[in-house]
Amino acid sequence: MNISVVICVYTERRWNDIHAAVASVRAQRHQPHEIICVVDHNPVLHARLKRSLPDVTVVANAQQRGLSGGKNTGVSVARGDVVAFLDDDAVAAPDWLAAFAKHYDDPDVAGVGGRTLALWPGSPSAAELRRRAGRGLLEGEHVEAGRRPGWFPAEFDWTVGCTYRGMRPGPIRNLMGGNASFRKEAFEVAGGFAGGIGRSHHKRPLGCEETEFCIRLRQRRPDWELVYEDAAVIWHRVPPERARFSYFRQRCYAEGLSKALVTRSVGTRDGLASERAHALRTLPRGAAAGLGAALRGDAAGLGRAGAIAVGLAWTAWGYAVGTAGALRPRRAREAGR
The Glycosyltransferase 2-like domain covers which part of the protein (predicted)? Predict the structure, then answer.
């Protein structure tokens, strides 16, 4: 199985992280067909990476600024049977691609996503991760690293781009974009990632471009499956500013806004199916566990329970605001008829 790996990059501030990500892909036991770095409208970074990574295909984002345009550009360049995506501030375990590849023996599998663990503040530097990746020393470290804030609930690890409590291996509605792979054919069936949903130059940390794509793909090919494989492990860096409660709250609100855009595209039933299950089952259990921990003397448990309540409320508020914003232009058009 030929797998092209696409890494979307945009800033020189992640120079060391980018090279650590590339080193981890080079060290894969299932060797990639090619590594593609897509540079998002940054000519200086593009020129520097072409010089420093001569064995990597470095291309400029040919579409609109942002992650969706970068991914679409990478797909258009890729020559593999499968296209895998890795975040530019993440490193992959040596069996990452092998864990993806084994599922593609089943012709009904259109995409496979993996387990993303957090590199919290205090984790090894990018240079150290690059050294470990190049020597294959990441294997077996299937645990998060650094210092997770005591108040931060695992049920909301998606706010920092990581696998969250409640995800289970097997068929899944959508994959997480920074640790995902798709058959090249999937993009011929569903088209590319939609602009205006994922992260771009917008100041808010919007997301969900991969959610909308996965739902749209399965609406067009309901016989295809998307699979979550927890053996396909990567580690994703969480900078200090994203480990703060202010970012947590902002990210939850932005997720609600993004979900409103997703449901406008693919419908409410498919767009919110997983979110309803998470809110009705996983989050109450998490809040109860936090309260129980507090009663047993873990003061941070109360913080986790409170963060779950705040996170759910702010996500719902963002969704309500996004839905109302979508309805206003429609009502204005109808009133003008």
Answer: 4-116
Q: Is the pTM of this model over 0.85?
A: yes
Sole residue written with tokens 């109808």: 334
Right CATH for 3-244 from 3.40.50.720, 3.40.1190.10, 3.90.550.10, 3.40.50.10190: 3.90.550.10
Stretches where the chain sits below pLDDT 50 are: 200-202, 329-337
Residue type, 101: A
Residue 41: per-residue pLDDT: 95
DSSP symbols for 136-176: TTTTT--S-BS---TT--GGGGGGGTS--TT--SEE-S---
Nearest Cα to Cα of residue 24 among 78, 116, 88: 88
- Max Cα separation, the chain? 67
In order of 60, 217, 219, 240, the CA distances from 155 in angstroms are: 36, 26, 27, 19
